[in-house]
Amino acid sequence: MTDTQPRSNSRPAAGRDGTGRDRRETVVVVGKESVGKSELVAGLTGTTPTTGNFRGTTVDVERYESDEFVFVDTPGILLGTDTQTTRTAISAVEDTETVLLVVRATNIDDDLEDLLPLVQGKVGAIAVTFWDKVENQAEARDELDALADDLGVPLVPVDARNVSRVATDGGGSAVDGRERTHLVSALLDADEFPGQVTRRTGIHLDPPATILERPLAGPLVGIALLLLPAAAAVHFANAVASELSPEVRSLLAPAVRWTSDLPGPLAAVLGGDYGLLSMGPFLFVWAGPTILLFALFMAVYKNSGLVTRITTSLHPSLRHVGLTGRDLVRVVMGFGCNVPAVTSTRGCSDCTRRTTVSAIGFGSACSYQFPATLAVFAAVDMPWLVLPYVGVLATTTLVYARLIAPERARTASLAAEDRTFLQWPTPRSVWREASTVVRSFFLKALPVFVGIVFLASLLDYLGVLDVMGTTLSPVMALFNLPGETALVVVLGSIRKDGLLLLQSDGLGATLSAMTPVQVLTAVYLAGVLLPCLVTAITVARELSPRYAGRMLLRQAAAAAGFSLLIGWGGAALF
């Protein structure tokens, strides 16, 4: 060891120095996926995370602050992959001095063998999670103590779900939780990590298998579980919106009438058909509940370990189309909101990330698009169309992914860790995960939504939308659709709630005269011709404007081709 003295002897006390700078030491938290890092640090600090860049990186990390330290929670490491998140985690380790290494008690030897070379020469401590899964803890603790002596680095066994900043002593007074005290002490007494482990504990537990591991039933159950959040979220949103939407519109009606006295452009932006006051209820009454419930479902899946099991189950079937099981989970995330789904593809392999982003833009019917689609089907008394719609959307998305995926993506390995334990998530961990998604929606998607409302309102005020609809009307005949649906396709390409125009009074007669195949074709074409502008802007930021432009052109061509097949093939069959 280069320094055999406890580092706490030379470490300044937490607080601020004479210049006002924060003297708390930064600790980078690093570990493999699904080891409980985020839950551990959230419990350790008792705070909610703030998102930001770490020392010049372009990928967001979460920061947690306690009295003693500032913890930087990095993305889970997937060794042997080229994911952006893994590169970010490794870079964060290289740029800091103190590391909290998190490994699983159920597979501690392999985790240390893989991760110690990454932190060699750094100082810190090791947190051993999933300790509650170890059966003979007394014997295992002796093994940990011997391992700690061998490594020269403190090891602290914990149950990440139950690490608490505050506990209660015998007299009812608030004190630091025992596990928290041990972790803080270990970091204060941090020592240098070796580059390898020479002693093995022999501690290894295999989580019990479930139906998801069965060859035939597993993928079917996995798909059903992935579709459940979308179905439940949309059902919940429809139930809430049917009750709240009339009330909200009634409350806003005086404000909308007041805008009629304003100058023309301002009246259009605020109270026009596509104005902020007119579309606001749809955002908060329809999209808001959908995103919240979907985020809660996915948080439960992630924190229970279920999402990792589903990922592994679906991968053998999906890799033939150029996606991995992990990629499909992100595509399904897009049913809540495309923005966090696209952002989460930072955890995809470089060879599949662009295919995954394209699949999200094409087939992830977000919380605007899906409720609007259901509303149109309900308006024409054909709610049963949702089943063929979902089937067509899923099938064409997989075909589209297969067509655009590079050859090397079809041989990509999943790079998944060993089978994870399934466990009941805590309410705290679920809310922390879900609130991150909701916050991303309001901080990233909402500002773009306002900009799109502004643009659409002005285009409507200037008559540009009507001209575009009229110009494109003859094109609709190519898809066996009435010319009046052209404006719906235009607005659906800008904003997915533009689909609602199909059930407006102006198109009511046209919609009622359309066959089921025509309704399905119109809704499909308007929904997938282009990703909404929010998604397109997010893709441009995440990858590049050039790629976003290519993606738009490619998606438009594929959507047109599929719509031709649906429109004319469906008419021939039915």
Automatic annotation (TrEMBL):
Residues 284-377, 442-545 form the Nucleoside transporter/FeoB GTPase Gate domain. Keywords: Membrane, Plasmid, Transmembrane, Transmembrane helix. The chain crosses the membrane at residues 220-241, 283-301, 359-380, 386-405, 441-464, 519-540, 552-573. GO terms for molecular function: ferrous iron transmembrane transporter activity; GTP binding. Pfam families: FeoB_N (PF02421), Gate (PF07670). This is GTP-binding protein. One of its GO terms (cellular component) is plasma membrane. InterPro entries: FeoB_GTPase (IPR050860), G_FEOB_dom (IPR030389), Gate_dom (IPR011642), P-loop_NTPase (IPR027417). PANTHER family: FE(2+) TRANSPORTER FEOB, FERROUS IRON TRANSPORT PROTEIN B. Residues 1-10 have a biased composition (Polar residues). Signal peptide: none annotated. Residues 26-164 form the FeoB-type G domain. It comes from Haloferax gibbonsii.
